[in-house]
Specification:
The chain is of the alpha/beta class. It folds into 2 domains: about 140 residues, Medium-chain alcohol dehydrogenases, catalytic domain (Quinone Oxidoreductase, Chain A, domain 1), CATH 3.90.180; about 130 residues, Rossmann fold. It is built from 9 helices and 16 strands. The two termini are about 20 Å apart. The chain binds NADP nicotinamide-adenine-dinucleotide phosphate.
């Protein structure tokens, strides 16, 4: 089968198309024909070797976390999954699972969901990592109806889904983005847009109940200055410093910090599907690539400055 693999950790040059053996699902796994894959910043960070301790040194390695597709075979008599069903989910490449930038993937069911009939395959591929990352922080903020929320990085993969989820939950959102994404932010019906290239977000006089830092650009002490009493700062930052700051904030202080990271629980999937089906939340997908253009998709992702999600069409279901 065709796959995009890395032959070592490193820059764009280590990612290449390759013909590799079609996987056979081991006991407890299923074989999925991959239709769409969405990229996330972790894809190039993993290519660079950011998690090599966990991913090991066996090459070639197939990259790609978020996918949608069709079940071909299930090697588990007890499973509720059946061949022919449409699914979407996350391939746990961090834990040595095969990535989904391939025609087929053999995968454990933990992060695989049946595709609801109301959600299309492209949208489903686009939401798993970014949407569940956004929801993990949002779900820690309590009731959001009429709460004033600042979303930093509001047009990025996590940020635009956070913005849409927050608005669906009744929050009044101020979106922060760069000049070229202002129209994208306005189209999400936010209350206000701040261009971080022209205004100093932290010096603006407004106060918020929640600061959702999808871009992970603030520190907790910076965000605190923007928070009302008992306000909450949520950050996607993945560092020991951020972890410690969030732990310390829970000891006594009125203003709290929570980390918004991927959990992938069935409750999070349920809630995300509800927000998509009942509240009409749709991911922004302005950039799609064919399977022969995965290297170009990575270039665009790594260059930054896009909006929403970048999706690769691996195979059409038609
Ligand atoms: N995607 C995931 O599954 C996931 C999971 C866990 C953690 N994270 C973390 O979450 C963060 C965002 O991920 P993503 O997938 O949303 O990435 P992304 O799609 O590349 O979006 C990044 C966003 O950050 C904005 N940004 C850049 N510099 C900024 C600044 N100085 N002030 C305000 N906004 C700024 C960009 O806006 P402009 O383009 O307008 O400049 C862009 O909208 C990353 O740090 C990532 O490591 C992501």
């Amino acid at each position: 089968m065709k796959a995009w693999v890395i032959t070592n950790y490193g820059g764009p040059e280590v990612l290449e198309p390759m013909e590799i053996e079609k996987p056979q699902p081991a006991a407890g796994k299923m074989l999925i024909e991959v239709h769409y894959v969405a990229l996330n910043p972790y894809d190039y960070k993993l290519r660079n070797g950011a998690a090599k301790m966990m991913m090991g040194n066996k090459f070639p390695k197939v990259l790609g976390g978020d996918f949608s597709g069709k079940i071909i075979a299930v090697n588990d008599d007890e499973s509720n999954f059946k061949p022919g069903q449409m699914v979407y989910g996350f391939a746990n490449i961090f834990m040595k699972e095969q990535g989904c930038l391939a025609e087929y993937i053999s995968i454990a069911p933990k992060y695989v969901r049946l595709l609801p009939s109301e959600i299309n395959e492209i949208d489903a591929s686009a939401v798993t990592s970014a949407g569940l990352t956004a929801l993990s922080g949002i779900s820690k903020c309590g009731g959001l109806s009429d709460k004033r929320v600042l979303v930093n990085g509001a047009t990025g993969g996590v940020g635009h889904l956070a913005t849409k989820f927050l608005i669906a939950k009744g929050a009044i959102v101020t979106a922060v983005c760069s000049t070229k994404n202002i129209e994208v932010a306005e189209a999400m019906n936010v209350a206000r847009v701040i261009d971080y290239r022209k205004e100093e977000v932290l010096k603006d006089g407004e106060m918020y109940d929640v600061v959702f830092d999808a871009a992970a650009k603030f520190s907790f002490s910076q965000a605190k200055a923007k928070l009302n009493t008992s306000g909450i700062y949520c950050s996607t930052e993945e560092s020991i410093k951020a972890f410690l700051a969030s732990m310390i904030s829970k000891i006594g202080a009125a203003k709290k910090m929570y980390l918004s990271g991927f959990r992938g629980s069935q409750e999070d999937f349920d809630e995300m599907e509800t927000l998509m089906i009942n509240n009409g939340v749709k991911p922004i997908i302005n950039h799609t690539f064919s399977f022969s253009e995965v290297d170009k998709a990575f270039q665009l992702l790594e260059a930054g400055g896009t909006n929403g999600k970048i999706v690769i069409k691996v195979k059409d279901n038609e």
